[in-house]
Structures are given as structure tokens and as C-alpha cells.
Amino acid sequence: MVVVHLSPSKSFALDVVNSIENQTAIDCLSLSCPQISNKKLKLAMQYGAVWLTPNGKKAARVRKVKKILSKGDKLSIYYDEKILFSPIPSAQLISDEGEYSVWNKPSGMFSQGTKWGDHSSIARWVELFGLAKYNLDLRPTFLVHRLDRATSGIILVAHSKKMAASLSFLFEHRQIEKQYEAVVKGEFPSELISQPILDEIDGKSATTIVLSSKYDPSSRQSRLLVKIETGRKHQIRKHLANRGFPIIGDRFYGDDFLHEVSVDYGSYLETEINTKTKQPDLMLKSCYLSFTCPMTQIKQEYKI
Questions:
Q1: Do 184 and 271 reside in the same domain of the chain?
Q2: Which one, 49, 66, 78, 136, has the greatest CB density within 10 A?
């Protein structure tokens, strides 16, 4: 990661229509944003905060600083130094399988980028920093599936479009077994273990099964092993909270809050929750993935 001195006030979105034939993208940005150094503008491009909309075409990220623009092309820059240049928590390599790699995503790392940048999302982070960190061959990266930003644990990153499509197919058709470890408040009832939780999520079917529970009387918490057969947004968090057992550190579905405040943090709208005491990280971790590898047809298992 390149170290850049931050200026908290520097946050803006700007659309620029190019009026000079054969001008480069970086020259166009430099003329339009004289208050930002070329070094920072180049990093903003590399980190996915600059978009190009050619005449009559769809907008896409533009990363090449020497990209030649035509008259009428529109550059859009979404520049926020806090988003672009703040430290990013590092993922840990679990296994490199060539066509895909397996990582332990930390809590706080995104699965997807936004218009304000994608360098802090898992796939782009692996491409920019992760492969080099572990002395692996540099390759393109493609997102296969998602974990909530606050959820840690096992996530797959594909290194070709073909592999991304193959792995995505397995997820979509429920051919990948997924297990999570969750820590909840209270003693989880034994009668609910192995009983499917079938509450719909956003009007769609969802199935969560608690496989086991270990209660710690000293902390009054239970450590659960949870299996999901669907992948709805916040599925485990919602299902457990609905049963009266919110996950420790859950800022959306827990109960130790004073009030919620929605704030616009440049790249996304997030609900910030003021708590009586400092909240721990969300105690939810993707701890197990198992599937038949599309390349070798051999069953693979990954555990944390």
C-alpha cells in the first residue's frame, strides 16, 4: 500500500467532459483537479475511483492513466482521501489453487467496491496487494461470492472469468457447503439444535441450521456452529436475532443500543449505531467451505 498524507477535507465528486481530442485521462483530470497532485490522481485511478463514460456507452472504471480520450467523453471522479488512502486490513492466504485462491477475509474488508473505489474489496485487494504479499504469480481477480463487511472468514477469489462462472454456478445451485461460527448472548436451547430456521428473508426462502452449541457460563454466551443452505443478506444474523439470540457485536440486530443514525460516508450509506459501551467486532466467521473443484473434480475442504 502506498502511504499518502491525508487531508480530511478533500472529498468531492466531479464530472468532466473532455473537450480536447486525443487528450489522456490523467491530463484531463490534472487540468480539472489542480488541487490534487498527479500522484494521488493516478492512485485514485488505480484504486477504482475514476469512471469513463464514452459517448453513448456505459460507464466503466478507467485505470490506465495514458488512456486516450475522445471529445465528448465524460470522466467522473469520486475522490475521498479517507476512503482511498486509509489503511486496509489484510486478508490471510489459506490456499492458492492456481485458477482460484482461498482467503481469510478480516472483519471490515468489503466484498464489493463502490463508485468511490474498489481497492479495499477482497478481489481487488488480492490483485493489488495480496498476491505480491505472499509471493504468488500476479493474476486477474474476480469476485465469486460475498460476505458481509463485518463478517470474517473463508472467501474464494477466482483468477479467470471461466473459473468465476464455474464457482458462481456451484454457489447458485447450492453445491457448496457453508458453515459459520457465531457467538450469541445467552444459552442457546438444545431443542433448537438441528431444527431448520425457515423465516423468509426479504420475501425469499432461507434455511439456517444450528449444528451445535457450546455454552460458557462465565461469559453467558454460546458458541454456535451454523450451516446455511441459502445465502440471503444478513441471513444468519436475522435468523438468530429473530430467535432471541443476537450475535455478539451485531450493530444492526443486537439489543444494546441507544439509537440508530444513518450517515452518508461518501461511498455508501451505512447505519451507525451509538452504543452504551464500545461494541466488539461482529462475532460471525465463515469457518468451513466444501465443494467439488470444477477443475479436478476432487472434493475440496477449507477450514478455519
A1: yes
A2: 49
What's the length of the chain?
304
Same domain flag for 189 and 255: yes
User: Do residues 232 and 191 both lie within one domain?
Assistant: yes
Handedness of CA 16, 14, 78, 83 (dihedral sign): positive
The catalytic residue among 80, 118, 148, 250 is: 148
Query: How confident is the model at residue 281, as a pLDDT?
Result: 87
Is the same domain home to 250 and 182? yes
The residue among 230, 166, 226 whose CA lies nearest residue 202 is 230
Determine the pLDDT at residue 3.
Answer: 42
Give the pLDDT confidence score for residue 248 in this predicted structure.
Answer: 95
Q: Which of the listed residues 117, 144, 175 is the one where a domain comes to its end? A: 175
pLDDT of residue 276: 45
Catalytic residue status for 148: yes
pTM: 0.84
Which residues have C-beta within 8 Å of that of residue 112, sequence separation ≥ 6?
A: 118, 121, 143, 146
Domain span at residue 143? 92-175
Residue 30 in any domain: the answer is yes
Backbone angles phi, psi at 48, to 5 degrees: 85, 25
Low-confidence residues of the chain, pLDDT below 50?
1-6, 8, 257-276
Cα–Cα distances (Å) from 109 to 124, 194, 230, 283, in that order, read 11, 31, 22, 15
C-alpha cell at 226: 451454523
Domain count, the chain: 3
Q: What is the pLDDT of residue 7?
A: 52
Q: Rounded CA gap, 287 and 290, in Å?
A: 10
Task: Please choose, from the candidates 36, 43, 81, 77, the residue with its C-alpha nearest in 3D space to the C-alpha of residue 59.
Answer: 77
**Is 50 a member of any domain?**
yes
Residue 269 pLDDT: 38
